[in-house]
Amino acid sequence: MILPLALFSLIPLILPLAVVSAEPVYKPVVLWHGMGDDCCNPQSMGRVTELIQKVLPGVFVHSVQVGETRQDDHEAGFFGQVNDQVEQVCEQLAGIPELADGFNAIGFSQGGLFLRAYVQRCNRPAVHRLITFGSPHGGVADIPNCMNPVDLTCRLMRSAVRFGVYTGYVQHRVVQAQYYKDPRNLQGYLDHNVFLPDINNELGVKNETYRDNLSQLEYFIMVRFADDSMVKPSETAWFWTYDENEDLVPLDKQDMFREDWLGLQRLGARLRFLVSPGQHMEISDDFLETEIIHPYLASPETSAASIPAISTPRFISQP
């Protein structure tokens, strides 16, 4: 069919209008929930998913589920081997076509620690921006309390820990024991903890892949809750930890940072430290939207100018 000449004259006008009106394409987002939660709780991960998709129309969001059902996923937050769960999620995310070109990731509480393990150990597809809320990156000096006091699974977890947090039985069964770092028994922690000493590169032989993978993030944003009483110390969300004298040690005072075991020093200003008001996992929609979604989950072209530069070494030691 031959188009009239008049129509040809309109094509240059039509094409630019089509380009201008097209919605921006946002990187997919992966969520990993915390202890006592599950992938699809409409009050938690469901709410976060809806808010992200409202602010970023058309964005693909995947919420990690360990196991076949929501109940399996809930129980996996307390019982199982974290190393096996991270490996399962590596396979899970690799099989999702929408994530093939990489994604941004948000981890809540222990889910943020596990997403960091994903970045360090497999990272295919790659995480571009990693955001963690109240995550025990530096370990915990006490087993977290149950957020829901009637949660039988959580109560069983705490009962099992009483047998001995660094026994083989507990270490291979109780999730929270696998990031427990006893300041009164640091050698026991290094010798018997089956997850955190490895993922924090605290063992004798350093894993260079861990450092390289983490240092390639576009941004690593760690959020601490101002009034957190669930994880101890609350500053573990920024990698702070207790020494053998039970004194709190900021990240930049640790060998982990000074010798750059994890590539955190290499990240420089791409390493960010935020504070969210309230208790553990009390995250307002306003904080999510203004402090996380708009500056960090928008496409690089639209968000780069909105992310202020900071001086990382000066900021790290601020309580």
UniProtKB/TrEMBL annotation:
EC primary class: hydrolase
InterPro entries reported in the protein's UniProt record: AB_hydrolase_fold, Palm_thioest
Keywords linked to the UniProt accession: Disulfide bond, Glycoprotein, Hydrolase, Signal
Entry's EC annotation: 3.1.2.22
Gene3D superfamilies to which the protein is assigned, alphabetical: alpha/beta hydrolase (3.40.50.1820)
Endpoints of the signal sequence: 1-22
Molecular-function GO terms, alphabetical: palmitoyl-(protein) hydrolase activity
PANTHER family: PALMITOYL-PROTEIN THIOESTERASE 1, PALMITOYL-PROTEIN THIOESTERASE/DOLICHYLDIPHOSPHATASE 1
Family indicated by similarity: Belongs to the palmitoyl-protein thioesterase family.
Name of the featured protein: Palmitoyl-protein thioesterase 1
Organism name: Lichtheimia corymbifera JMRC:FSU:9682
